[in-house]
Amino acid sequence: MNMISQFCRNLIARTTFEVAVAIIILANCFLIGLNTYQLQLHDTIHRIQNIILVLFTIEFVIRFFARTSLKEFVTSGWSIFDFSLLVINYIPETAFDNGLSLLALRVLRVFRVLRLLRLSSEIRLIVSVLLRSLRSLLCNAVVFFAFMYLFAILGISMFRLPEPATLPPEKAAAYAQLVEVAPPTPSCSPDPYGTLGESMFTLFRLLTGEDWTDIRYNLVKASEYGIIHVSPPVVTGFHVLWYVLAAFLLLNLFVGAVLTNYQTILEQTKQKKKETSAR
Q1: How far apart are CA 122 and CA 265, in angstroms?
Q2: A Pfam family matched by this chain, by name (predicted)?
Q3: 178 conformational bin, left if phi > 0, alpha if psi -120 to 50, beta if neither
Q4: Residue 154 lies in a domain
Q5: Under-70 pLDDT residues of the chain
Q6: CATH number at residue 71
Q7: Quick one: which of 180, 186, 165, 185 has its CA closest to 225?
Q8: I need a surface site. Which of 201, 210, 223, 238 has the fewest CB within 10 A?
């Protein structure tokens, strides 16, 4: 057993082994994409993918024998990930009669593309950083959601357009003129601050920079026509404040959390390499 383990460790340590695995992963990803086209090669692609599945199984067995300890291998996130993909791909489609279950199986099989994340140590480092940053990102997301919820409520209170049927004749005429002069963007979109959900989505649109000036100009026109009861400076100040707060402050909190964890994991990786070299 020791001889087999040592042989597997030496095999994994070789650059040719990693290059071969990378080529197989890339070929598998290419075939997954090729299979989405209506080509007369479905059976051929299926056979090649079965061969690749066998090669992935052999790779998993080699990594199993090359393990430092059974506990470390079983608790490793990459080992669990690889084993899950193997189990999913060995489940035959004929085992499902339900169309929804079969669809779910096919969707899960597409996750084989994620094996690209194992192509290099740098990519694995980035994945480790993202996983470690989840807690910080969740906290930042709570703060972001709180501000978005606050601004959404404020937006509804100040900028929600009235229902045309409830307006008196003069206001209804002004509303019709507003729709003609400043139509919504796009034309099929509802009132940007009509509901809580739509208001929050509007704030997300503002964050991406899509048509946020059009929304602002339309609301300024609505103010000038007396449809909403806030002044143009308030409209401008609200949207500029949200854009500055969200784009330049809240999003940078997400970036800062990831960069901090990246630096921490990078230093830990360097320390492990030094300890390994010292041995």
Answers
A1: 12
A2: Ion_trans
A3: alpha
A4: yes
A5: 1, 96-103, 105-109, 112, 118-121, 185-186, 273, 275-279
A6: 1.20.120.350
A7: 180
A8: 210
- For residue 158 the two structure tokens come to 């100040």
Residue 127: its H or E element: helix 121-132
Tokens 């230093």 sit at which residue?
267
For the segment 43-55, what is each residue's pLDDT rounded down to a tens digit? 888 889 889 889 9
- What are the tens digits of pLDDT across the range 44-103? 888 898 898 899 899 899 988 888 888 878 887 778 888 888 888 888 777 766 666 666
CA distance 140 to 148: 12
Last residue of a domain, one of 65, 84, 119: 119
Amino acid 119: pLDDT: 63
Q: Under a CB-based contact definition with an 8 Å cutoff, are residues 220 and 236 in contact?
A: yes
Same domain, 183 and 99: no
Residues 142, 252 share a domain? yes
Residues 114 and 147 placed together within one structural domain of the fold: no
Distance CA 271, CA 215 (A): 52
Spatial CA neighbour of 55 closest among 26, 77, 91: 26
